[in-house]
Amino acid sequence: MKVWREPSGGVVIEDRIYPVTPASMTVNAGIITGEVIELKVAERVEQATGRVVSPARLTGTLRLTNTSTDRAVRLVEGRLLFIDGQGQPIELEADRPHAIVKLSTSGREWLDPGGDVTQALDAEFPVEALKASTLREIRLELSYVPSPVREQMVNFVVSIGAGQ
Description:
By secondary structure, the chain is an all-beta fold. The protein is built from no helices and 9 strands. Strand 4 (about 30-45) and strand 5 form a beta hairpin. The protein starts with a strand and ends in a 16-residue tail after the last strand.
């Protein structure tokens, strides 16, 4: 555990880290492939009492590649689902938002064929899933809009000089 601050009142807050095994994996969703790496779950707790100061979050890095040779894609979003041992989703607590991952193509609207993008993954994590043997898998549902890339030729009729 890593101590990250000590406010003036003498209360020590620390990061409680839960490793995810495996910490890296490949993803494949149609023409989008990639990997999720360096996965971990962290929450911040008061050292003396164990009181949770900041709820658990899943962090890591998401790398996506458009494997198509002729279709650009617009990445919309990703939705994380946390699945228990019986194959059922583990819900987040009532006051916490859904685990949505906003996907970015580095300032471009479309991810070109063969293009890739890397971004930080940071999402809410259900407290229930921190219990031993509760979480079986994490599902990433990707939403994207494919568009065919078109190549067209345009000819310009020109002349150089005095209108010959």
